[in-house]
Amino acid sequence: MTNRRSSLLTRSVALTLFVIALPGIACAFDPYGTWMRPSTGTQVNFYDCGGKLCAKIVAVKDERRKSKIGTVIMTGATKSADNQWKGDLPGLSPCRDLTL
């Protein structure tokens, strides 16, 4: 009987900790930092540029794409909703909007 109570107590504590942590998990994420595209291994750094969100390529897996390192791929994105940013993709003609 003691083992059963101990097991039940352990599960209750774990569930309580999970519920306490849940609001932190559910809140809007921070887009800043370096993210990797799994399919290509390309790493993109999202950074603050004058209070807006910008992004540039900082690393590539494919040696043939090394010249792309340093290329700014998104400029002037502003937060439009939780977990949503809208900005421009320079270099595309006509310039395209991007929503993250």
Residue stretches low in confidence (pLDDT < 50, at least 5 long) are 3-26
**Overall pLDDT metric:** 74
Structural class: alpha+beta
Distance between the termini: 53 Å
Strand order of the largest sheet: 1-2-3-4-5-6
Strand content: 35-45%
| SSE topology string | HEEEEEE
Tally of separate helices: 1
Q: Give a count of the beta strands, DSSP E runs of length 2 or more.
A: 6
Give the biggest beta sheet: 6 strands, antiparallel
What does it look like?
The chain is globular and about 35 Å long. Helices cover 25% and strands 39% of the residues. Strands 1-2-3-4-5-6 form a 6-stranded antiparallel beta sheet, with no helix packed on it. It has 1 helix and 6 strands; from the N terminus they run H-E-E-E-E-E-E. It has one domain.
Brief rundown of the structure:
This protein is of the alpha+beta class and 100 residues long. It has one helix at 2-26, and strands spanning 33-36, 43-49, 52-59, 72-81, 84-89, 96-99.
Q: What's the helix and strand layout?
A:
Blueprint: H1 2-26, E1 33-36, E2 43-49, E3 52-59, E4 72-81, E5 84-89, E6 96-99
